[in-house]
Amino acid sequence: MHHSIDTQQIVLHELTNEIDLNVKRKPLCAGWNGGIAHEGIQNAAGTVAYMVPGRNGTQWAANDDAYRFTPNGPPTPIAYTFVWTNAQTGAVLGNGSTLTLPPPVTIDSVICTVSVTGGCAPYSFSSVYQVGVGKVNANFTYTKKYGCDEDTIVFNNITNPQIATTYTWFFGDLNTSTDANPTHIYANQGTYTVTLIADHPPCIKDTDIQVIVISHPINAAIAVLGPNPAVPGIIPKDSVCLGQGFLATTGSSVVAALVQYIYDWGDGTSDTMTSPTPIAHTYANVGTYTVTHIITDTLGCKDTSSQLVYVIIPSYVNFTVSDSVICVGDPVLFTDTISANTNFFSWNFDDGKILDNIHNPSHTWDHTPASGTYNVTLTGKTPRCPDAVVSKSIQIDDYPIVNLGPDTSICPGVTGSILLANVSNPFAANNLWNTNETSSSITVTQPGRFWLTVTSNNGECKSTDSIWVQRDCYLNIPNSFSPNADGLNDYFLPREILSSGLKSFTMDIYNRWGEKIFTTNKIDGRGWDGKYNNVDQPVGVFVYIINAQFINNVKKEFKGNVTLLR
Prior knowledge:
The chain has one helix and 49 strands.
């Protein structure tokens, strides 16, 4: 079994430099290192060692054993120096093993520092000595107790000494006290210089001066943030439009924490909050309201501020249109309704044209292309309010294109039928012919005038074109003429005017006695001029016989009477 050394002690004798080794109990431990042990001393570097005789690497045991090492030669002389200093200021007061202070003593304590040289090594130590009170040490602390109207300061006097010491307090507000631990009430917040004078005869008086700041103002203020939600371009002020939320927050300043925020909106309603979060309120009626803001801090102190808020009427605009579905080039009449408080309004016709402050305008979309949907917008403006905006759509269609081509003619037997169609817009829908047909084209077999009307998809825009299908292969024979050189009906049967499609033609004129007085075979002749042998014939009835052949090889004979008039 292994047994340890109970106690081992090394003692250095400072004046003689002798070293004692003391061992309480050291058993022989054969099971540890073969029972071999060492006892001695060595230098710090471990290069020189001095061993106890018989105990340098041998087996040994000891109980209450001691051995002293004595150095060779005489011991080193030891010297002492003394320095006395003021414990408060550090000033040197004297040297030597004693210190005498002349009266009056004004020092509370002194320090004696002893420096030792010789022996093992130089060292020093210090001691503090209380030598008596030569001066009073005036000092105090204080505790603030805030109030709403007045503030209380409780003073704690820690002057040394306090026994048989008198005090004079100056509180900085023209008030004084001679109490040891006074309590003083300040009527107003501010910065105060408090002076304590302590007197302890025969000691020197002492003064402690401290500055006490009493500042816990509570200043209520309401900050107007304007309408809620915010209106772009409007700087928050004290006006809001009817129907808009009015956003406000506290602008109060306070040292103590606030615990309550009250907003009295001036319309019979209020809100109470426990944080300075902005709050919104919506007024139900136009008018001027006084918003009162009341704040309460942790002391229970309150302050109030107020702000006038003006609730104004916002703009109102609206309009009607004479027609919302029109054709290109047709005017539209706009009839507006605008509130009297609207100080500016503007029309935007969605085609780059804008009119400002014009009531009941009319507008025509006549540019190319103009068809499409246009959003006409009327905007009204009132200061401090969002714009009033109303828009309505106008649908504009182009007039349909209708072109039946040039007039034509029809000759029975030669021209079997004619196809009439919208040659410029063959795929147009919504067709209506004067024959009540609705197809895009019709076939005609008789002469006449024909119309086609095409309606736009919106049902508003209509375009019409007509074509004259003239009769061909015909001869129109009048029953009278007036050869009086007035330029009207001066000839009987001018073929270029009264016929078409002639292939051959003969005409004979007879008077009442059966005498042939005129004959011609010209297809394009002007006809009979009412003369015989260049002599004007009298007014009367004459007989004609006409044989005609047309380009369709149809031959016809016409007999009848014609009246000559003057």
